Amino acid sequence: MGKIWFVPGLALIAVLGGCAGTEGGRETKGAAAEILQVPLTATRYNTGRVGNAMLVSRGGETTVTLQLSNVPSYASRPIHLYTYIHGGRCEAMSERPAYELNDHVLASPLGRPGAIAAYRGPVTLTNVAPVSLQKLRDTPHAINVLTAPADGNRSISCGNIAG
């Protein structure tokens, strides 16, 4: 039943995300929130995978939801993903992250919030950044997704937030 509800939700996100474009993602402005879709590009440690980050403005905070088609086969199960927002762009990020989004690191199977991703397949993860979406968009920032320390802290996906 959860998958039946999830598919229309994905369609809604796609429709909202397609309303307006920006460099580094698509944005939608609504009465309650601003939404920015940021495509995530797989690194050499996660070749052939696709991903997306949905950033939703919530006043002075930004909810960041990652959706990845899969993680590397060497990633231990259950899947732990660490997310950081760096100054700069994926090609030239600041050495230290500006924001760590690691309140929640256990990825869930896509379409099954709260379940622990112990299998291979699409995963999702949501965290909150203590910064406004507008501030992230004012200067270049990049979302960087890493594997767990036990898996080498390897960057597996990165996406540029428009700046």
Q: Which of globular, elongated, flat, extended, rod-shaped describes the shape?
A: globular
Number of helical segments? 2
Helix content: 10-25%
User: Unreliable stretches, pLDDT < 50, 5 or more residues?
Assistant: 1-23
CATH topology: Immunoglobulin-like
Give the distance, in angstroms, between the N- and C-terminal Cα atoms: 40 Å
How large is the share of residues in beta strands? 35-45%
Q: How would you state the average pLDDT, rounded?
A: 84
Number of spatially distinct domains:
1
Rg, Cα atoms, Å: 15 Å
CATH class group = Mainly Beta
SSE pattern, N- to C-terminal: HEEEEEEEEEEHEE
Structural class: mainly beta
Largest sheet: 12 strands, antiparallel
CATH architecture: Sandwich
Secondary structure tally: strands: 12
Description of the structure:
This is Superoxide dismutase. The chain has helices at 2-17, 133-138, and strands at 20-22, 25-29, 34-42, 50-58, 61-68, 81-89, 92-93, 99-101, 108-109, 123-129, 141-147, 155-161. The chain is mainly β. It has a single domain, classed as Immunoglobulin-like (Sandwich), CATH 2.60.40. Strands 1, 2, 3, 4, 5, 6, 7, 8, 9, 10, 11 and 12 form a twelve-stranded antiparallel sheet that branches. It starts with a helix and ends with a strand. 36% of the residues are buried. The model is unreliable at 1-23 (pLDDT under 50).
Keyword list:
single chain, 163 residues, mainly beta, disordered N terminus
